Amino acid sequence: MTATTAQTRRSMPATGDTLLDVQNLEKYFPIRGGLLSRVVGNVKAVNDVSFKIGRGEVVGLVGESGSGKTTAGRAILRLIEPTGGQVLFNGTDITKLSKGQMRDYRREMQIIFQDPFASLNPRMTVSDIIGEAMQIHNLHPGKGRIDRIAELLQKVGLRPEHMRRYPHEFSGGQRQRIGIARALAVDPAFIVADEPVSALDVSIQAQVVNLLQDLQEELGLTVLFIAHDLAVVEYICDRIIVMYLGRVMEIAPSRQLNTNPKHPYTEALLSAAPVPDPTVKRQRIILEGDIPSPINPPSGCVFRTRCRYAIADCANIVPELREVSPGHFKACIRDDIL
Amino acid sequence: MTHQGEVLLAVNGLKTYFSTDDGVVKSVDGVTFHINKGETLAVVGESGSGKSVTSLSVMRLIPTPPGKIVEGEILFTGKDGVQKDIVKLSEADMRKIRGNDISMIFQEPMTSLNPVYTVGDQIAEAVMLHQGKNKKDAMGVATDMLRFVGIPAPEKRVNEYPHQMSGGMRQRVMIAMALSCKPALLIADEPTTALDVTIQAQILDLMRKLQADVGMSILFITHNLGVVAEMADRVVVMYGGRVVEEGDVVEIFKAPRHPYTMGLLNSIPRPGEAHEPGQPKGRLEAIPGNVPNPLSLPPGCAFEPRCKFAVPDCSKAVPALEDTGHGHMSRCIRWRDFAQAQNEVTA
């Protein structure tokens, strides 16, 4: 294990200016059972995940439910405590920081949640929601804070007079804009966007995607964009990380991942997405069965039980993430496929 | 898909209204469409478009009060070959149709199965009711149905409870239940929205195979245009409680004649359109504004406030649903302009 993890770390893409360097991140949730509530097992939600994000880069984190993508996103921000590994932010390992020290870093790292209905406190006005983080970090004290809130609302396509209203007075798309304004309130360098458009109507999704893209470019934000929809991700991300059952399967620049996937899981995921063109009839790769339980994942490669290229060795070897072409990494032992 | 051209279900001028404290919500306001035998009709729309209320009206599952079918007819020809108007049927007659001639699968397979009964019991219930089979035979049918929808070890699974199964498995159980009495019409209300894409691909694949086997018609309600392209023969696009466009699936995607449909098609990211490294990223063409409030729809065309092609006449009266040729219908006063523009591009 130690040998492979060291190799994994070395083989990660080295961009000129790395903002976030995630090394062998691990999040196990203990399962307790029996009379004494002893730990009888672990849900390995995130297992040995390593990647880097360059400053100003937009990276997609894609996977199905149970892949660990949301857990990874939250563990990076320490919204849940990782059980292993390091998260280097600007070179500092934030997993070692105390709560008080962490507070200063939280100013730099914010999150946008999936559900615009559950993530805004219904009893707070929009100005309270957006101003709360500024208050905690003592930014823009006094009258300046109201001006700043007004400015943020305009930035996300709402009007300053909206600040006195409550969340229930807004539509889903507008609420997501409030969530974005809240994340931007403390001038963060890094944002985790956890499925920010999945809960929105189709005609509203494009508005929010465009807004995120504009803000990212204008403010030079670094973004980890978590999603299950590869089509949205490839549109706005520079690179994409594909996860399955807690592990990274493939990392590649967006276009390369879509046109030339190197991992059988990515191939199947791309093939499964329905194409909005009725004249296209293609042979689809239908994956058999369901994603296995993360309590007892398959030995060797976690994807082998559903992989059409699996060979005997796949059950014995945990494939390391290795670079197969510049900037393109895959965790698969076979080079004679794809 | 078999096109026998024989109409199975004809919805004419359906109006389903809900009375609320704030006023009457015209969820479905004069909807007309039909489904032929063996055909898949997709109804596309966003939240508040009235697509789900339309399907619940066909099943007569509108909670009354507050809801009510106030006008229109729903003509359906059941397995007995007799055409009936579902709006006028007694509750007892309706019960004979539900689950037998028309069945329905829902978006959330977790909440639409009863957690305290085994899946076998739940499938057998409809079989005993509609086919008069005894419990033992009905459980046999349940096992066969589970095998039919591709559940491994059906003899064992038939005695399991919903919580013992994954989301995709549960949706298969729902489908097994819906098909157990060989219905003429299957209503599928967002059946894959809660599922992962690889599981969605499995379920869509299964639905296509079963349709070919059983020969039923499918009313497929969805907001996912990718799923529409894959499953539908014909498409109905709804907005603000009305049908705004209807036509053959290829026509709808290649030559849309309503600005809302055009906007939807432009606003979705298409697979394989990622930018080259170092090149500027693409931009989606978003539809501005919000889905209209059903309590205060615009006086004319419901889409007018968001429409980039709107002219003053658009807000004067609700446009009629006009035939643009070959049964391709559009509720837009400017459809001729779009047809002409497209002809000029192709010419």
TrEMBL record, chain A:
Gene3D superfamilies in alphabetical order: P-loop containing nucleotide triphosphate hydrolases (3.40.50.300)
GO MF term list: ATP binding; ATP hydrolysis activity
PANTHER family, per the entry: D,D-DIPEPTIDE TRANSPORT ATP-BINDING PROTEIN DDPF-RELATED (PTHR43776:SF7), TRANSPORT ATP-BINDING PROTEIN (PTHR43776)
Positions of the ABC transporter domain: 20-270
Organism encoding this protein: Deinococcus indicus
Entry annotated with the keyword Oxidoreductase: no
GO biological-process terms attached to the record: peptide transport; transmembrane transport
Protein known as: Peptide ABC transporter ATP-binding protein
Family: Belongs to the ABC transporter superfamily.
Keywords, in A-Z order: ATP-binding, Nucleotide-binding, Transport
UniProtKB/TrEMBL annotation, chain B:
Any one of the GO BP annotations: peptide transport
Start and end residues of each ABC transporter domain: 11-265
Alphabetical UniProt keywords: ATP-binding, Cell membrane, Membrane, Nucleotide-binding, Transport
Molecular function terms, GO-annotated: ATP binding; ATP hydrolysis activity
Record GO cellular component, one term: plasma membrane
Localisation: Cell membrane
InterPro entries linked: AAA+_ATPase, ABC_Ni/Peptide_Import, ABC_transporter-like_ATP-bd, ABC_transporter-like_CS, Oligopep_ABC_C, P-loop_NTPase
SMART domains membership: AAA
Membrane topology note: Peripheral membrane protein
PANTHER family: DIPEPTIDE TRANSPORT ATP-BINDING PROTEIN DPPD (PTHR43297:SF2), OLIGOPEPTIDE TRANSPORT ATP-BINDING PROTEIN APPD (PTHR43297)
UniProt similarity note: Belongs to the ABC transporter superfamily.
Full protein name: Dipeptide ABC transporter ATP-binding protein DppD
